[in-house]
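pinging the channel bc i need a second pair of eyes. not urgent but kinda urgent?? the chain im working w is below, pasted from the shared doc
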Amino acid sequence: MKLSLPKSNTYKYQPNLTPKFTTNNHNTRTPYLVKKNQVSQQSIPFTDTHKKQSMLDLNKDSPFIMLITTLIAGLIGCLILLAWRRSKSKPAKDAATTMPWIDKLVPEEDPDEDDDHDGKQKVAVFFGSQSGTAEGFAKAFAEEANARYEKATFRVVDLEEYAAEDDEYEEKFKKDTLAIFFLATYGDGEPTDNAARFYKWITEKKESGRQWLQKLQYGVFGLGNMQYEHFNKVAKVVDEILADQGAKRIAPLGLGDDDKSIEDDFTAWRELVWPELDKLLRNEDDNAVSNMPYTAAILGYRVILHDQPTGESLQDKSWINANSIHAAAIDAQHPCRANVAVRRELHTPASDRSCTHLEFDISGTGLKYETGDHVGVYCENLKETVEAAEKLMGLSPDTYFSIHTDTEDGQLINGGSLLAPPFPPCTVRTALTRYADLLNFPKKSALLALAAHASEPSEADRLRYLASPAGKDEYAQWMVAGQRSLLEVMAEFPSAKPPLGVFFASVAPRLQPRYYSISSSPKVAPTRIHVSCALVYEKTPTGRIHKGVSSTWMKTAAPLEENLDCSWAPIFVRQSNFRLPTDTSVPIIMIGPGTGLAPFRGFLQERYALKEDGAELGPSILFFGCRNRNMDFIYEDELKNFVKSGALSELVVAFSREGLTKEYVQQKMMERASDIWNLLSQGAYIYVCGDAKGMARDVHRTLHAIAQEQGSLNSSQAESMVKNLQMTGRYLRDVW
């Protein structure tokens, strides 16, 4: 039965129209039919009476056998002990040689290591980093600081590893007298994964009202994007709490803006910090060398060329048993391999855009997820992108090589602590495909690395100028505003031919995972992770067609249901606080236009399963938006079936490209202001998912307006009410 669209674009639950749903061949209940391959397993009974008889015969000579067994066991034990002692004297292998997708920088020394014997003051440089930028700044800052100050040792510390337990934070911070923080903010004002536990602890510590950090002097540099509502929230909060707890700020809070040039922001803030550190860490009789200008070295891995191996490469072998990893170890540094089971287009042929529904098969991986979580996906560069890079570098794609952070005698190379761990030995083509970010615009440090290896003096001068303070405005206009990719820049300066070690260390950043709101529920799809991904395909100011790395890969992925040689990707799950109320009877309001629908599809699958189990569901309303019902009304049939089943009480759709007037979800919300206010008065939770820069801000303003109109509140009271919803966990946002 197909519903006709009412004029109000609203669908309401009618119990007498509840549909019958199909049970799929995985015995999971679903309000939609998805074809899945059925895999049968045959158990094979096994008996061996001959082996049993042999054991009985051996029992006759059991004393002799026991003596021989004991002697052999003793000999084996001695050999094991000898091997263990020898292994202790050898350096451990880099973990990255067995797990090819580790993207964490080389760990520093243990923060608790006692350096007091050398008489130097210890300075902790903490970082909270999601993509590696904050970690890179922390490393660069510590490197320069160690060169400037002979009487101090700056050590870089991952906030996640600083304290094993929460109650250790206070004890450890009491020992630190000088600390620098590099803290990134992502999403809806959230801390990075590795800083989440620290951030939770320090915000809770704020409530104590006790000043216990009087001995600590500190500086904070934040990394954020001005386009987002909660710009640098994490850095601002930590800076304020540290000061409130008695710590002394040595320099103003640094606010890095990734929407412009965060490198320039970092450089400017760093220049404010040095004079203050000079007062603390230098004496008048310090060596004059310490006043010399510092120039960062161009980093490069040590490279070894190898003969092309036959058969499977080390990297491919490393994935054979990757899924045997215990689930607790699966994270961004240790993802698991997941095959693409299903792929289908969500837009109709009439649409000039594209949106892909993708399902990763996680059976047998140990990977688990909850409704509302995110999945991180490591994708590959397009073949055309890789071939362009090979041509610009002038290298054979079949060149087989390995990169190293140590010298031949096992010593760390100069600047080795700043380098990401080496990826496994592979060909140039594989390295460019899986590890190099080739389409983002290069940072200024990359331009300096290119300049150092440009054979044409005019090109080298131009690259250095763009990276200099004098070229700041031109860099912002030509590079950032022009959205020039690394490959475009290399084509513009063809004489710049950095060697492999420099290219992967200083020119091309590591390709980062892309995060997606999971659009399924484990109650319906326990062995699948669903993703809803809009294709990125747009023309840049230079006329280049930019194809999104991950979205293009997903659109062209070969699913298992069509090809046994299917596409796969390393994936992991990132937990989210975007959760349904624990009380199923609590009302919920969901706002998610476009692919912002993704987590709500998971919510509705979960509510459907709960209803089937007899749970009482509270009222629910979904505000969804797209351009045209005949083009991009994604999951239309599923949403209508959710309404029919009662998993969703009401669906309200806004079409922005139908008729003379554009309609958006926030306008539909104002039309239903009374209903929204009534649900909020009943304790409803409100959820928003989608674009943070536009839609989420507009929805926030709309909530503010509804509170004023329906609650007869003034502007200050309305904002206070909306903020209270956020503080109590009833207003949740999953935005990007």
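so Residues 1-7, 20-65, 83-115 have pLDDT under 50 and may be disordered. and The longest strand covers residues 336-345. — does that match what u expected or am i reading it wrong
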